[in-house]
Structures are given as structure tokens and as C-alpha cells.
Design a protein that fits this description.
281 residues; mainly alpha; 14 helices
Length: 281
């Protein structure tokens, strides 16, 4: 390799790292900004004049530790979100397999009907859901949040997994049927491993939507026993103390960390799932 060619290759590599590094800074800037606000006193945040050298403070941390059971809120969020994702996958995978593998009249229409339930405004069913859970005695419980999160996201998870299953060729299934394998064995041993990136992508999307759910959480969780991180944020946006910006920033960062860790942990499967073909109708 000539010296000029090596020089061009090195210059291209440096340019690539500069572009990627700049984009990484742009993506990390809001996170770092929220974290800096969490370590600043509230008086400096709401002051009209700019402060170029902020003061380090643990006021928000002290407030959360002493006055708010933030650990319970985080636990409720993790349990409700994790349980809802498990329920969604347990129901969506067989449903997606049936909609993608069985030929029957109205199959495509049924798939669209399932997805159309996600297009409905949640406020329409808020009151009936409240009375239903009150009749079941599940108000103000994490179990109720788990069920409602799963119900809200089930149609979307089913649609995403079905789209990936449609891309899987049926040759392997035909060979397995020739060897005497049944539908359940084919689904769990052939189809599910083949579309695992799509399943992981659907699970992450469902988890993000569940964490961001506020209306049903506020409706079902009437006391702090079932409060999640999204409701905890609302506690710092009003009242006699006004908006507590440093506490909001801290709670937002704490709620963001589990999802960030999950994405980093499964980023290989997630990137494959996001790039495996187009979503089919």
C-alpha cells in the first residue's frame, strides 16, 4: 500500500470518528444537561439572570431520599413494565404466528382490526376501565398497572412481531412438518429464534410506551403505594413550592437509566431488529 493511500485512509478514518463523536455529543448533551440541573440548587435554576458557574448542591437528592419514597416508585415502575412486557409477548407471539402462518378468510382484516385498537384515544375508555378495576378490587395496585400497560401495547407488539414473521421463509417449517413436528414446536424452535431481533425490538418499544404511560397510571394509582416514576414527576410540577426543577431533572434521569441500560445490553439484537426489512401490512 502506497504512502499516499495510507494517508487518505487515515484522513478518512479521522473524519469518520469526528462525525461520529460530534453526533454522540449532540445525543448526550440533553442527558448531561439534565444531570447538571439535578446537582444545582433550585434558586439558581429559576433565577432570571444567567449563572455561568453553578453551585453544586444535593438538595434534590435529599428531597427524594427524605421526603419521597423514590425507591418504591422505581420498583413499581420496573415490576409493572416488566410484567406487562412478559404478558404482551406471551399473548402476541402465538397471535402473530397464527396471523402470519395460517391461511383463513379475513386474515389481513383481523390484523388491521388488532392494530386499529392502538389508534384509539385512551381517554375514551378511561372511565370504564376505572369502574372495571374498582369492581375487581385492583385499584391502586401494581397488578392493575401491569394489566393495563399490557392491554394498551398488545396490539402494537402483535403487529410488529407478525410483520417479522411474514419475512421468514416457510421452507424450514415444511421440512420440520415432514419430520413430524407440530405447530407449537415449529413456532418455538424455528419461527421464534428466527425473528428474535424483531421480538426484542417489540419488547423494547412496549417497555418505553409503558414507562411513558401517564393517564392510566394516574387513574389507577390513587396513592403512593402504586405510584410509578411518571406519576412521581407530576408531584414536582405544582403545589405550594411551585415547580421543583432539580427534582424533576433527577427523577427523569433515574427513570431514563434502566431503559438506557436495557438498550445497551441488547443493542446488537435491537439494531438487527430495526433494520430487518420493512413493516408489512
Amino acid at each position: 500500500m502506497t504512502k499516499a493511500r495510507k494517508s487518505r485512509r487515515a484522513g478518512s478514518l479521522v473524519l469518520r470518528y469526528l462525525v461520529l463523536g460530534s453526533w454522540a455529543l449532540v445525543c448526550l448533551a440533553p442527558i448531561v444537561w439534565f444531570l447538571t440541573i439535578a446537582f444545582r440548587p433550585r434558586t439558581e435554576i429559576i433565577t432570571p439572570s444567567p449563572i455561568y458557574w453553578p453551585t453544586f448542591s444535593l438538595d434534590a437528592w435529599t428531597l427524594l431520599i427524605n421526603d419521597w419514597p423514590i425507591g418504591d416508585y422505581l420498583r413499581n415502575s420496573i415490576v409493572a413494565v416488566t410484567g406487562s412486557v412478559i404478558i404482551d409477548l406471551a399473548l402476541a407471539i402465538p397471535a402473530a404466528f397464527a396471523l402470519s402462518r395460517y391461511e383463513f378468510k379475513g386474515r389481513d382484516d383481523i390484523g388491521f382490526y388488532i392494530l386499529s385498537t392502538r389508534m384509539m384515544a385512551p381517554a375514551i375508555v378511561a372511565v370504564p376501565i376505572f369502574f372495571l378495576f374498582r369492581w375487581l378490587g385492583l385499584l391502586d395496585t401494581v397488578w392493575a398497572l401491569m394489566i393495563i400497560y399490557a392491554a394498551v401495547n398488545l396490539s402494537l407488539v402483535t403487529w410488529i412481531i407478525r410483520s417479522y414473521m411474514l419475512d421468514i421463509p416457510k421452507d424450514l417449517e415444511d421440512a420440520a412438518r415432514t419430520n413430524g413436528a407440530g405447530d407449537l414446536r415449529i413456532m418455538w424452535e424455528i419461527v421464534v429464534p428466527a425473528c428474535l431481533p424483531g421480538i426484542i425490538t417489540a419488547a423494547v418499544i412496549a417497555a418505553i410506551f409503558a414507562i411513558n404511560e401517564f393517564l392510566f397510571t394516574l387513574l389507577i394509582a390513587s396513592t403512593s403505594d402504586a405510584y410509578t416514576m411518571s406519576v412521581a414527576l407530576a408531584n414536582f410540577t405544582g403545589g405550594s413550592d411551585g415547580v421543583i426543577y432539580n427534582a424533576i431533572a433527577l427523577v427523569s434521569f433515574i427513570a431514563f437509566v434502566p431503559i438506557l441500560g436495557l438498550v445497551i445490553l441488547i443493542q446488537g439484537h435491537l439494531s438487527r431488529g430495526l433494520t430487518m426489512g420493512a413493516v408489512k401490512g
